[in-house]
Design a protein that fits this description.
107 residues; two-stranded antiparallel ribbon; five-stranded antiparallel beta sheet; single chain; 1 helix
Length: 107
C-alpha cells in the first residue's frame, strides 16, 4: 500500500468464546506457518470479522470502508488459497495494545 496507509479491523469469534483461534507454544526460535502467516512462540492467531480499509480519496485519513476479500479479486492470484481472516497478536502488541486473556464464565 502507500506510505501512511492504515487498516483497522473488528475482532471475530473463534467459536470458543474468544477471538483467539490458536495459541502457539513452540520451542525457542522456532516458528509455524498457519493459514499463510508465520507465528512464533507465545503469539496468537486472532480471528478478524471485518477489515476496514482507509479510503484514499479522503485527505484527512479518517474515512474507512469495509473490505470484502471476495470482491477484491482483480489482482489476486487464482492459484493461491484465499487469505485467512487472521491477525497476529504481535502486531497488536507493537501498536501498544495490551492483550489479556479473559476466561468466559461457564454456562
Amino acid at each position: 500500500m502507500r506510505p501512511g496507509h492504515h487498516w483497522l479491523f473488528k475482532f471475530g469469534d473463534a467459536r470458543n468464546g474468544t477471538s483467539c483461534e490458536k495459541k502457539f507454544n513452540l520451542a525457542h526460535r522456532s516458528w509455524e506457518d498457519y493459514k499463510g502467516a508465520r507465528f512464533y512462540n507465545g503469539q496468537q492467531a486472532l480471528v478478524v470479522e471485518q477489515w476496514l480499509n482507509q479510503v484514499e480519496e479522503d485527505a484527512s485519513g479518517l474515512t474507512f470502508e469495509a473490505w470484502n476479500p471476495t470482491q477484491d479479486t482483480q489482482d489476486a492470484d487464482a492459484s493461491q488459497p484465499p487469505v485467512a481472516m487472521l491477525s497476529n497478536s504481535s502486531e497488536l502488541r507493537a501498536a501498544g495494545f495490551t492483550l489479556r486473556e479473559v476466561i468466559p464464565p461457564a454456562l
